[in-house]
Amino acid sequence: LNNTAPATLKTELKKYSNIENVSAVSHMPAAGTTYGDGFKKSLDDKDWTSLDYFAVDEDYLQNIDIELVAGNFFSEEAGESNKNFIVINEMAVNDLHYDSPMDALGKELIYHPDSTRKQIIGVVKNYNHQLLVQKLGPMALMYAPGQFKLLQVKYSGTYENAIKSVEASWAVVNPTMKLDYKDFAQELHFFYDMIFGDVVDIL
């Protein structure tokens, strides 16, 4: 993003009919990088529960088609209030010792770095947020605009036409700055092919 306001670029991108959805994020799923920190249900708890997390905006679920198994997701209407909420996955439900996804809804988690309390508003199905060769693990999704580093663009039609839309949008918002973009599927396949070779194709 190069310090570009995500909302400004998203608005410009959505003017094009072949751009279906745009989401501001901190990390790409299955790329092997993530944030991570400790969470507690109560300050009386002895230990912090470690969870990976991505910073995402309200359009993230729609962009990568992850199932919401309980509750709700961040919303545009909530605005900055989204910072008070958190969404966790099914494995985090277990690690935090809730009886079920429904049981977790409405509960509060204390975030270690600043001791802020975040209400659990939703639970998503487990998915490969880390490397595909790693076991699925507990993770959270947090609305943290200060940690957005990328825009994920979901498009229809050809990749070439999508790039034209992206380049045109970027030129309006950042006319003097170079644009850096990658095709997620191609980059992911290249990464795993580089590490595992033909094993990726065989599987």
Would you mind describing this structure in some detail?
The protein has 203 residues and is an alpha+beta fold. The protein is 27% helix and 26% strand. It starts with 5 loop residues before the first helix and ends with a helix.
Give a quick precis of the structure.
With 203 residues, this protein is an alpha+beta fold. It has 7 helices and 9 strands. Strand 2 (35-40) and strand 3 (49-55) form a beta hairpin.
What attributes characterize this protein structure?
203 residues; alpha+beta; six-stranded mixed barrel; two-stranded antiparallel ribbon; 7 helices; 9 strands; 27% helix; elongated; disordered C terminus
Termini, distance in Å?
34 Å
Given the C-alpha coordinates, what overall shape results? elongated
The percentage of residues in β strands lies in: 25-35%
Uncertain stretches of 5 or more adjacent residues: 194-203
SSE blueprint:
Blueprint lengths: L5 H8 L5 E7 L9 E6 L8 E7 L4 H5 L3 E4 L13 E5 H6 L5 H4 L3 E4 L4 E9 L14 E4 L7 E6 L3 H15 L10 H13 L2 H4 L1
Parallel strand pairs: 3-8, 5-7
Antiparallel strand pairs: 1-9, 2-3, 2-6, 4-7, 5-8, 6-7
Helix pairs in contact: 1-5
